[in-house]
Amino acid sequence: xxxxxxxxxxxxxxxxxxxxxxxxxxxxxxxxxxxxxxxxxxxxxxxxxxxxxxxxxxxxxxxxxxxxxxxxxxxxxxxxxxxxxxxxxxxxxxxxxxxxxxxxxxxxxxxxxxxxxxxxxxxxxxxxxxxxxxxxxxxxxxxxxxxxxxxxxxxxxxxxxxxxxxxxxxxxxxxxxxxxxxxxxxxxxxxxxxxxxxxxxxxxxxxxxxxxxxxxxxxxxxxxxxxxxxxxxxxxxxxxxxxxxxxxxxxxxxxxxxxxxxxxxxxxxxxxxxxxxxxxxxxxxxxxxxxxxxxxxxxxxxxxxxxxxxxxxxxxxxxxxxxxxxxxxxxxxxxxxxxxxxxxxxxxxxxxxxxxxxxxxxxxxxxxxxxxxxxxxxxxxxxxxxxxxxxxxxxxxxxxxxxxxxxxxxxxxxxxxxxxxxxxxxxxxxxxxxxxxxxxxxxxxxxxxxxxxxxxxxxxxxxxxxxxxxxxxxxxxxxxxxxxxxxxxxxxxxxxxxxxxxxxxxxxxxxxxxxxxxxxxxxxxxxxxxxxxxxxxxxxxxxxxxxxxxxxxxxxxxxxxxxxxxxxxxxxxx
Length: 574
Fold this sequence. Notes:
The strands form 6 sheets. A 9-stranded mixed β-sheet has the order 2-1-12-11-13-14-15-16-17, sandwiched between helices. A 6-stranded mixed β-sheet has the order 4-3-5-6-8-7, sandwiched between helices. Strands 18, 19, 20, 21 and 22 form a 5-stranded antiparallel β-sheet that branches. It starts with 13 loop residues before the first helix and ends with a helix. It contains 18 helices and 27 strands. Among the domains are: 71-218, Rossmann fold; 467-573, ANL, C-terminal domain (GMP Synthetase, Chain A, domain 3), CATH 3.30.300.30.
């Protein structure tokens, strides 16, 4: 067992008695050693997949649209993709852009890049051409893998502005379903544009790669961070797989035995983390290209019963409303993991009534921490919190102005230190210095989230610092108002945002947006005025007057991001 520098503790003093680190007592009660992180093998993603191709050759690695791909087949395709990238002149350190939804091509390309010592950066399929060009230039993307419709709608308009781009490889939705996209061979200025399916048929060998160490950057994942323009978080294999292993202390993945159903987009750090853990443990991973297609997601789970499900709260809510999901056999399900957004207690109870008790756990994190920082374990779940710090992970709550550590129960900015923390932002020293600050000889990631630790070491997130409202000089945490409203059975989704109060500068007006449940008989939404009255009555009953929304909007659908989180930016624009 290996103990990281970040987890070394004194044998006596405040930390040992749990005053500064109150989660130690909770760990002892669970019989888990917080101090020691299991050793991280000196292996990259490519190494894991090569090993599984030998040890589990016929086990399904990926399932896409009902079609399975074994670990032997996956490794062969990775080897061929590596040869193709070699033919394009790619070398260690070059950047491969992945501009795809959840498809086998994404996994194959990521494995091939790791095999050659390349760096991958995920580019959201929802980005505009301008946004794609910005990320491509910032990351210095040399080869871009995209999908035929995205090539036609986005990349044709972006490629000419990407200064480092040499080659665009265009795949088709049917490439792994017996209907490959072929026949494309053209250029866009100096950029070669080639059909992936055609090129995968060409002979060639992968250049023997320079050894990719686990401390080399594997993944350049872009995030809006706490403020400002998107930034490239530099994540190594050690960051990513250490975080998998830290969380696995609670997950308990069984080698070669799990079936993982996740609709997290792979271009999001949450989806990537679930994928990496599945591939690390020779699990079968169900690729869901469109998380909003609930019928398809349920259909895939009917064919291959999952042992692990991972989704965001909004998706769990949609699943719970689907008859097919409620009828699934969950006797083999060991765990349902939620993350990326708060999950109301009443919604967790609704999910548990379907999948069974003591199977739900919740994680909290961000791109810069690979991504998990805390985990609310099923065996000691505390509703309303996001759990205790992972093994080897420290959490400090600090005053946003003075950086003074806050006592238990008092909110402040959440800061995190541990082996999963990123190496910094690409070519942004000022942003890196602002996010990563030294304290007591350790680097601490300042998350921009507001929260507090209780006397058992459980973290509760009050709000994003940018989502916290000020009313009459008092702080209003949007999550508290949302949880109050979400408990009503007539509320499908809700969100709280603030708009500047022009009559009281420096203050906000609390706005509540509600997406109602459809009427089960009429198929229509509930009466708006009646629902408004019910919402207002509940808020006045349960919240301090300054927290009660002044403006309530009943909407047909609350906007969601590509990950399935509520899009508060879109609501603010209204």
